[in-house]
Amino acid sequence: MPWSPTFIFMVIFCVQSLAAMLQNGFMVTVLGRKWIQSHALPAGDMIVACLAASRFCLHGLAILNNFLNFFLLHQIDSYFGILWDFINTVNYWLTTWLAIFYCVKICSFSHPIFLWMKWRISQSVPRLLLGSLIIGGLSATSTFTGNTIAFQMMAYENCTHACGARMFSQYYYRCHTMLMCITPFFLSLLSIILLMFSLYWHLEQMRYHRPRPHDHSTQAHTMALKSLAFFLIFYTSYVLFLMLSTTHVITIYNSWRWAWEVITYMGISLHSTILMLSNPKMRRTLKTKFSNLCVGSS
């Protein structure tokens, strides 16, 4: 059936992923050009640039990985799956570092440890980025090890070994997914909670002072909360989908599998859109490109 739900969701997923790759490629180009021209980049923009690059690769690998799975090219898919796991883990941690960066920079807590973190966070960003690559490499190594053990167990003709290999693969991947996803998830959640408390205390203090026409602290709190809270909603669905995929409740042939893919990657795409529109440099570039396009068309 050419117009089955599976086919429709597959088309939507591909169009959405290609649009997301174009968007993240634009972000990498703008921030990368700024990085090269000025030989420096603000710490927050540095994280956003690396996050956009990882999401560009993530959307591309998601297309390849899903279609290789769909057409039963498991031998090739296993290699792309390891690369996807590396990029996916790096994306998790870059998003978490961005949430922590916003939290530390914007929150107005007066605890000495928090003040020390606020002073040190910008200088620590390159090490955090390197740490994301190291964790991604460990995750990919863990996936490769689990796949190798499962394939060796399935090589036996004994049915008991084959069933044991499938159970081992499911259990191993479930534990691996929980370890690699849940830790950055809760760190992001903690950052959002701290931002909410900071915003609440800031608004309480403003009640006893004359309100200012442009309260930059409140604006910064609100913008960061919108970005992080919005992503957390779809991040939750993303982690939920990975948990479901380990139990094989939704298979690659089920139309709901592609529906989940559309929903989860749409959340990542929309979060990238928020990051793009909240960056002054990219807003100016978009406005310039749009103005030139309108002048050229007229």
From TrEMBL:
TM segment ranges: 6-26, 47-72, 92-116, 128-151, 171-203, 224-246, 258-277
Keyword match Transmembrane helix: yes
Record's subcellular location: Membrane
Gene3D superfamilies from the UniProt entry: Rhodopsin 7-helix transmembrane proteins
GO cellular component entries: membrane
Alphabetical keyword list: G-protein coupled receptor, Membrane, Receptor, Sensory transduction, Taste, Transducer, Transmembrane, Transmembrane helix
Similarity annotation: Belongs to the G-protein coupled receptor T2R family.
This protein's name: Taste receptor type 2
